[in-house]
TrEMBL record:
CDD domains: AAA (cd00009). One of its GO terms (molecular function) is ATP binding. GO terms for biological process: DNA replication. It comes from Pedionomus torquatus (Plains-wanderer). It is found in: Nucleus. Its main location: nucleus. This is CTF18 protein. InterPro entries: AAA+_ATPase (IPR003593), ATPase_AAA_core (IPR003959), CTF18-RFC_complex (IPR053016), P-loop_NTPase (IPR027417). Keywords: ATP-binding, Cell cycle, DNA replication, DNA-binding, Nucleotide-binding, Nucleus. The lineage of its organism: Eukaryota, Metazoa, Chordata, Craniata, Vertebrata. Belongs to the activator 1 small subunits family. CTF18 subfamily.
Amino acid sequence: RRHVLEASQQLTEIINSETSTESPEPSREAEPAEEEDSALHCLWVDKFTPRRYMELLSDDYTNRCLLKWLKLWDTVVFGKEKAVKKTKPSTEFHPPFSQPKEQQNKWKTKMQLTEEILEAELDQHRRPKYKVALLCGPPGLGKTTLAHVIAKHAGYNAVEMNASDDRSPEVFKTRIEAATQMKSVLGANEKPNCLIIDEIDGAPTASINVLLNIIHRKDAEGEAAAGTGRRRRREGGLLLRPIICICNDQ
């Protein structure tokens, strides 16, 4: 393979030298060669990175929990009503065992229990109780890849920001509000944004307080009086977009 690459490189140099002597204008045929050369030198971690949900190699329980949490936003973001699961008639007329609920829950899987907990804890605006998901683990585990793949799989436009870069609380607040309140205007099909904040453990305390204030002050907006409600609307509307935070040190 090395000999073939060396021979092809020599032929390319000969062809380029001949075309440059024949025509003074630079040839455009060299551009695909440069693209192929860049593809050869592309990192494997970029070349073989997962593009779809089924290509993820991370923990399946974590993947499904994050996807389930993100799908709980569908009613608020996309206006989709949750599909009601129909019970099978066979189970209604012929119950398997006459066991109390506590004993039946004992045999449920870990994923089923987590789904029930997530679905039960919705606020008055039909949003998940927890507005922020936190992915933690050592570097190279695939946390950022997981966030991007699941956001794309759920129909969102992933907007990534690094909390360690934006050290100013004002800039941090502006970027969060821009990502969660503005629509994506790139392309014909507008998709809602899903904010991914990387290296949240490197953000200063003031920035973390800004993020907490954005979440908590908007939860109390519906219960506020008319005067305070106007003031809160000036500060920002209701948080209607999911936020995924990533850190190394929980």
